[in-house]
């Protein structure tokens, strides 16, 4: 029997991001992460001395060519003399990192923790980093897009979704990004026609329906109840968080709607007391690196019945002013520092319930889901944050 | 660190035989028997485990996302609650420990593995260094350890004869460790690799895997006759640049030990992750270990040093001695980074009232 009655409530009291761009040639890796951490501390009105531990995450070390970079980054993140953990769970890592940090508080090991995720893709080449040939294993020669395109095609066949749905998502997310000063892609002249006439990369995924390669970092300050009481701005409260994993490849795997994603969402909803996610959750920051993953995840996360996700997207429900806004920040489609992308989803969810999301704020957002996935759609991490402290 | 709010113990430990090369098996194949062994020891199956966490390094494997293949070996179906640190498995154990503290799980499987044989681990580890100013010079791990050893000699903390004594003692102890790679009293101290370190002062290069099962409270008592209770565990990091550190000392080890409660009562056993003889000198001082403490009865990292697993093995070896009734209060230590940059200390104890208990 598990017992969670003694868990300390966890609050997000500081959030910092860098302006995400294709190449931050003006800063080192250390400079990049320090910038995000500094902004998170400023938001929480705390100093480095207030931080008890640092939990850092990023995607593969090959993306920058630095093995276990937490060792080199210890000084830049004020971690000297403190505990420092490095999480790596592929594309879901930004979310997992925040959850590992939250456990340090929930388990009453520490009072205030800095968590940060980053990627400086310009230091290397992600396509190359994912394509190293290894004996007995199929290399991912076409990068992530080549791996995921067949699963998008399977979704279209299975649900009968018209082939225009993906472009609607891309058009929406890129317009949302115009309201987010930290977003990488600011395409002021974007039109639906431009998205639909973009070159086909991995059929059915067009160039404008794919994520960019970004340099960027995202940081959060997590704290306990006492820390939240001292916070200068409204905290976001953690109501539920979970990770789930399943194998990469096996005959029974459903790549369109992986069981690990369903189980992860169900665990989060159980913790948060959510019976009907479509009615009780106000907005979602969802990991959508290729546009079609919005309708796919709407189903996987329980916001739509199987085969119906594309109808929510098509009807405008997921627009910024819709009934269930998705990726108000512009999402991964507009900003993708891979290792940080999951944490940005979690942080943007927290910004929404704190009422601090600026131009892309959803009015009255009280409960928002942050979602991340990684590997061959096999690693999932999610959290649900609320404007009020959890009751149980 | 505050006192843990839940009693958590190491209830099972398994490791592979550590070998210079394992060309004939993949990482998953190397890991699988260890996972089966540790599960069999408790009678648990993958589906019974509340949380799983692993430690490994893509740079050793030579490919991105290398840990995903290892997860396939765990049998993660139906889907499991799982995470991974790109660190030694000792830190995966720390993450699992915090997860059990939250009460969201009662049992955890922790594993780690590393194959150093496919490349030159001395060169690979240079990629851990400051990528702009230091890594381009390719200073290898033995050269950096030699700087530390020379600093100790210069400070009068040790000499080459004493270091040779550490090497001989470790490998003699390893004679009774069937998993060790370099075993028995006959291992020669050899020539200089990088002065003042000789072959005997350096760890063997090898491949290996390890796994541990943690359990909380009554679950631990059900699964193990003599659980090794984690009385405290903490880890600390130091500055990266060697130029700003006193290489003859390890303040992060001392701090971690304080927070883990290591100094509250004496320990009878210590498993130290000291890949180089000179590092044992530094750690003994930081941890205030007297001659009455049995240090590295397994032979330590000088007998087998599978990178990314060697730290977890220290915790496992310390726990196994408690399981067998050979130790009552043991300290386990893991390290990461050049010249002991990051250090973890765990204090393990036999149960109150059980055979061999001190409390």
Automatic annotation (TrEMBL), chain A:
GO MF annotations, alphabetized: acyltransferase activity, transferring groups other than amino-acyl groups
Domain Thiolase C-terminal, first and last residues per copy: 247-377
CDD domains with a match to the protein in the record: SCP-x_thiolase
Record-linked InterPro entries: Thiolase, Thiolase-like, Thiolase_C_2
Pfam families on file: Thiolase_C_1
The protein's name in its UniProt record: Thiolase domain-containing protein
Organism the protein comes from: Streptomyces xanthii
Biological classification of the source: Bacteria, Bacillati, Actinomycetota, Actinomycetes, Kitasatosporales
Automatic annotation (TrEMBL), chain B:
Coiled coil feature spans: none
Signal sequence bounds: none
GO molecular function: acyltransferase activity, transferring groups other than amino-acyl groups
InterPro entries: Thiolase-like (IPR016039)
NCBIfam families on file: PRK07937.1
Protein name as catalogued: Thiolase domain-containing protein
Species the sequence originates in: Streptomyces xanthii
Classification of source organism: Bacteria, Bacillati, Actinomycetota, Actinomycetes, Kitasatosporales
């Amino acid at each position: 029997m598990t017992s969670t009655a003694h868990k300390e409530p966890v609050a997000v009291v500081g959030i910092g991001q860098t302006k995400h761009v294709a190449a931050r040639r003006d800063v080192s890796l250390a400079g990049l992460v320090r910038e995000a951490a500094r902004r998170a501390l400023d938001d929480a009105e705390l100093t480095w001395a207030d931080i008890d531990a640092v939990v850092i995450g990023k995607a593969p070390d090959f993306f920058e060519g630095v093995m276990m970079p937490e060792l080199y980054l210890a000084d830049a993140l004020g971690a000297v003399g403190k505990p420092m953990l490095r999480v790596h769970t592929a594309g879901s890592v930004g979310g997992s990192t925040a959850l590992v940090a939250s456990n340090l508080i929930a388990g009453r090991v520490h009072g205030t923790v800095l968590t940060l995720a980053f990627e400086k893709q310009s230091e290397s080449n992600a396509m190359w980093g994912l394509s190293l040939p290894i004996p007995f294993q199929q290399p991912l020669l076409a990068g992530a897009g080549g791996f995921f395109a067949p699963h998008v095609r399977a979704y279209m066949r299975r649900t009968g979704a018209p082939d225009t749905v993906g472009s609607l998502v891309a058009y929406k997310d890129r317009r949302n990004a115009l309201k987010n000063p930290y977003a990488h892609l600011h395409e002021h002249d974007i039109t639906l026609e431009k998205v639909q006439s973009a070159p086909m990369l991995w059929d059915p995924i067009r160039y404008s329906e794919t994520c960019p390669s970004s340099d960027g970092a995202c940081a959060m300050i997590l704290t306990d109840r006492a820390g939240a009481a001292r916070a200068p701005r409204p905290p976001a409260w953690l109501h539920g968080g979970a990770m789930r994993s399943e194998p990469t490849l096996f005959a029974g795997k459903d790549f369109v709607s992986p069981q690990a994603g369903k189980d992860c969402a169900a665990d989060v909803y159980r913790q948060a007391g959510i019976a009907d996610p479509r009615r009780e959750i106000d907005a979602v920051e969802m990991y959508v690196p290729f546009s079609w993953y919005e309708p796919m995840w709407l189903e996987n996360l329980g916001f739509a019945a199987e085969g119906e996700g594309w109808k929510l997207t098509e009807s405008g429900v997921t627009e910024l002013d819709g009934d269930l806004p998705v990726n108000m920040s512009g999402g991964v489609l507009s900003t993708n520092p891979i290792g940080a992308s999951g944490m940005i989803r979690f942080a943007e969810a927290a910004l929404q319930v704190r009422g601090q999301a600026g131009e892309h704020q959803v009015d009255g957002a009280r409960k928002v889901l942050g979602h991340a996935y990684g590997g061959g759609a096999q690693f999932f991490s999610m959290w649900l944050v609320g404007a009020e402290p959890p009751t149980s | 660190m505050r006192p843990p709010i839940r009693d958590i113990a190491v209830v099972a430990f398994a490791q592979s035989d550590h070998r210079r090369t394992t060309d004939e098996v993949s990482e998953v194949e190397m890991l699988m028997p260890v996972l089966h062994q540790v599960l069999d020891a408790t009678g648990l199956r993958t589906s019974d485990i509340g949380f799983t966490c692993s430690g490994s390094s893509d740079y050793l494997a030579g490919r991105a996302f290398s840990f995903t293949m290892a997860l396939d070996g765990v049998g993660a179906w139906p889907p499991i609650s799982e995470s991974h640190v790109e660190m030694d498995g000792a830190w995966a154990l720390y993450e699992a420990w915090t997860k059990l503290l939250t009460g969201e799980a009662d049992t955890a499987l922790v594993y780690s593995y590393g194959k150093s044989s496919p490349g030159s681990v001395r060169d690979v580890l240079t990629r851990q260094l400051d990528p702009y100013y230091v890594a381009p010079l390719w200073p290898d791990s033995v050269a950096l350890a030699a700087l530390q050893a020379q600093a100790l000699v210069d400070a009068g903390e040790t000499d080459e004869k004493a270091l040779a004594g550490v090497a001989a003692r470790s490998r003699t102890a390893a004679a009774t460790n069937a998993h060790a790679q370099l075993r028995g009293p006959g291992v020669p101290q050899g020539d200089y690799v990088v002065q003042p370190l000789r072959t005997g002062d350096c760890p063997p290069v090898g491949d290996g895997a390890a796994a541990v099962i943690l359990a909380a409270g009554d679950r631990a008592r059900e699964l193990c006759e003599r659980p090794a209770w984690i009385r405290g565990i903490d880890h600390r990091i130091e500055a990266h640049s060697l130029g700003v550190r006193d290489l003859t000392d390890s303040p992060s080890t001392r701090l971690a030990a304080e927070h883990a409660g290591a100094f509250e009562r004496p320990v009878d056993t210590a498993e130290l992750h000291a890949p180089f003889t000179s590092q044992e000198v530094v750690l003994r001082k930081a941890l205030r270990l007297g001659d009455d403490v049995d240090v590295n009865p397994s032979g330590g990292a000088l007998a087998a040093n599978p990178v990314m697993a060697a730290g977890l093995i220290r915790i496992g070896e310390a726990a196994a001695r408690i399981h067998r009734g050979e130790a009552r209060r043991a300290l386990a230590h893991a390290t990461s980074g050049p010249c002991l940059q990051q250090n973890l200390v765990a204090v393990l104890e036999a149960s109150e009232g059980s055979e061999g208990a001190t409390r």
